[in-house]
Structure formats: C-alpha cells, structure tokens
Design goal:
9 strands; Rossmann fold; single chain; about 300 residues; alpha/beta; two-stranded antiparallel ribbon; 2 domains; DNA polymerase, domain 1; 7-stranded mixed β-sheet
Length: about 300
C-alpha cells in the first residue's frame, strides 16, 4: 500500500535550502517522503520528525541522523528542547491528510467508505466525529460547519442532525449522508460532503488551533536565515499560513516601526504560493488543491 505521495516534493525540499550540517524538522512525517529527501542532503546534520499517528512510526528509517517523535506538532518547542535542540535551520509541514488515513475505512476520514465517523489523527484520543454530532448543541455544530467547512447552510445542517439524532444515533458516514443528503446542491454533492467531513475532521483534531501553536513555536525556534516551508490544502489553513508569514500574526496585520517601515519576521518567497503543475496533478490527483508557501526568518 502507498502510505502517501508527497505533493510539491521537489519544490518544498528546494525551499528548505538544506545545509549538510543543519538541523531540520518535519512536523508531519506521515509516509516519510519529505524526511527521506532531507536525510539524503544531510551529512553531519540532524532531522527530527513529528507525527501523532502511531501508524507513521512504521515508516521511520534507521538512521543516526534521524529522530522520530510520536507527538502532535503543537508540542514542537518542548520536544526539541528535551532532545537538546535549542534552535533549528528549517521546518517543513505538509498539512494534508495522508493517503493511508483516507484509504483505511475504519479511520472514517472520507464519505466514500461505509465506515464509523471517527476522523482521529491520534487514535488514542477519545473524541470522534460521531461524538461531536451526538453531543454538541445546535449553535456549536452550526459554527463548526460554517467556520471550518465554509458552508452557508450550516444552521440547517446542524438542525437536521439534532433532529435525526433524537431518533437514531448518527455513527457512520452512511448515517450522516442519509441525514444531510437532501441539503447538498444539485451536481455538487461530493463537494458538499467533502466540506462537511473537512469541518468535522478539523474540529475533532483541533487542527486550526494546533497549527497556530506550531507556527508561533517555529518562529521562535528558527535561526536567522532559517526556512519555514508549509503545504496547505484548503483556504482556512492557507490564509493562516499566508498571514503569519507576511506579518507574524494570524490576522495579517503588518505593524510598522517609528519610520513607517513594515515590521515582519519573515522574507516571503512566491507571495501567491506555488501550486502543482498539470503533470504532477495527472500523476497525483490528490495534489490538485496543494499550495506551497516558503518564508525565511529575518
């Protein structure tokens, strides 16, 4: 089984500007695609990889330049310091869900399988998508679908779920689709379901909050001239990364010094980001929504 095919692999590795003696971090190890390419370029350097999914450690290489940490990347700084690392020369984050997670039905990440509504990236967590649907109040559910799925009919989705769960538990992808299917726009059903599942997955895994925590710690840990390389897959996370690289905050508000010059912690490359070409999309259709952003700490 293919665990994951990294999107924009060559461009992201080039963006890291790897030095043979540098210290680098891959906060989304997954199948190890990015990490393997980084290791090829290191001589006396070190690579530290994070992944909270216990399945990912099966892909870890036996290499004395490599450290694998079964941790959420929100604990970046503490884990680096615990391993004797006070600063780093580059960090890469590929924020996509891996092929492995999508293609394992029991993980519940996709509506294309008859599967439990799970969606946990960390299988030791107790919170699942089914739990959210069964327990949250209508306004909170509506906010999840609006904020994380950008669904304009979020209130109606939440209302239908609340009404349906009083009659029968909503515990599988089929259960969910049977309840909300009538709300899907004609000929856009798959896009609608993808947004619903995205919203639930983000909420279950606290993806937006943890991304912000990681980015702030990355800025703190990066050496001057160190590179931050992030691949995003939807507008919510891309907006956060773009704003942070541009201004050092998540609102995108650029502060100015006494003389009116903009104060920013990064020099940004390719301000619109880098997207896959037609050849890569043909080879790996799941890369079509990827966008790569690269910044260097000033």
């Amino acid at each position: 089984m293919v665990y994951h095919i990294p999107a924009l692999l060559d461009e992201s590795i080039e963006g890291l500007n790897i030095q043979p003696d540098g210290i680098y971090v891959d906060v989304t190890f997954g199948g190890g695609g990015h990490s393997m390419e980084i290791l090829k370029r290191l001589k006396t350097g070190k690579l530290i990889a994070f992944d909270q999914d216990e399945d990912a450690k099966l892909n870890a290489p036996d290499d004395n330049k490599f450290i694998f940490l079964e941790q959420n990347f929100r604990f970046l700084k503490n884990n680096l310091i615990f391993n004797g690392i006070k600063s780093i020369d580059g960090l890469i984050a590929d924020l996509g869900v891996s092929f492995h997670q999508f293609d394992e039905p029991e993980r519940g990440f996709t509506f294309r399988h008859k599967a439990p509504l799970d969606m946990r990236m960390n299988k030791s967590s107790s919170l699942t998508a089914a739990t959210l649907i069964q327990t949250l109040d209508e306004p909170i559910l509506a906010d999840i679908f609006y904020n994380y799925g950008e669904l304009t009919n979020s209130r109606r989705i939440a209302r239908e779920l609340i009404n349906a769960r009083t009659l029968k538990p909503i515990s599988t992808a089929d259960d969910l689709i049977s309840v909300i299917g009538k709300l899907a726009p004609a000929r856009q059903e798959n896009k609608f379901y993808a947004k619903v599942f995205q919203a639930l997955r983000i909420s279950v895994n606290h993806e937006i909050d943890f991304l912000k925590e990681m980015l702030l710690q990355a800025l703190e840990m990066l050496n001057e001239g160190g590179r931050l390389v992030v691949i995003t897959y939807h507008s919510l996370e891309d907006r956060i990364v773009k704003n942070f690289m541009r201004s050092g905050n998540f609102e995108g508000i650029t502060k100015k010094d006494f003389y009116g010059n903009p104060e920013t912690p990064f020099r940004v490359f390719n301000k619109k980001g880098i997207t896959p070409g037609a050849e890569e999309i043909e080879r790996n259709n799941r890369s079509r929504s990827a966008r790569l952003r690269i910044a260097e700490k000033i």
